[in-house]
Amino acid sequence: MSKRYTNFKDIDRDIKYLRLKSQIDLEELKLSFNSTQEEFKSSLSPINLIKNTIGAILQKAFVLKAVDMLLGIKKVKEVDDDTFAGKSKSKKSFFKKLKNPFKKK
Fold this sequence. Notes:
The radius of gyration is 36 Å and the shape is elongated. By secondary structure, it is an all-alpha fold. The protein contains four helices and no strands.
């Protein structure tokens, strides 16, 4: 619904209100832009870059260590070809040498 005006005084008052509101919105936009710009500059400082890099490396190392502890994955030992060719003493001795990755410590 459009507003019907009966005199110029009401029109002038609404125009003044809308101009002030527009100026306030523009100033809020400028403040928001300046604060975002400052945050961006501070995040690119050398100290913050180093801190973020070290933090990411430590976080990945911690996650890998936690996964390794939970799954109990060990490095696989190299086995001679003779073992697979049937020249080993027995299959049981071969499998006894392997560690159970699911065994709790």
